[in-house]
Amino acid sequence: MKDSIEGLNIVDLTKEVIELAINEVKIKDFEDALQYHSARLTTKVFVTRNKRHFEKVKDGIEVLTPEEFINRYGSLLY
User: Fold this and answer.
1) DSSP 3-state assignment of 63?
2) What long-range pairs does 64-69 form, CB within 8 A, spacing at least 24?
3) Chain mean position to CA 60
4) Strand locations in the chain (E)
5) Contacts of 37 (CB under 8 A, 6+ apart)
6) In this predicted model, what pLDDT tens digit does every residue of 5-23 receive, in sequence order?
């Protein structure tokens, strides 16, 4: 199990992320906006099973399903 979390980081929920999520107009769901802005501020790839929820903001970060992520970057993980 430890190997499966190697390289992952826990992202802090900051005041900045909350403010960005509150003011986000392209994402209707507040929790989705929190996830998006947390990812956008800390990484280059956002992995989600609900990719369609983020169609309007895909220009801000690469949005991939878990399967797409493994297909694209899986060889870099091992």
Assistant:
1) strand
2) 69/45
3) 10
4) 45-47, 62-64
5) 17, 20, 21, 24
6) 676 778 899 999 999 999 9
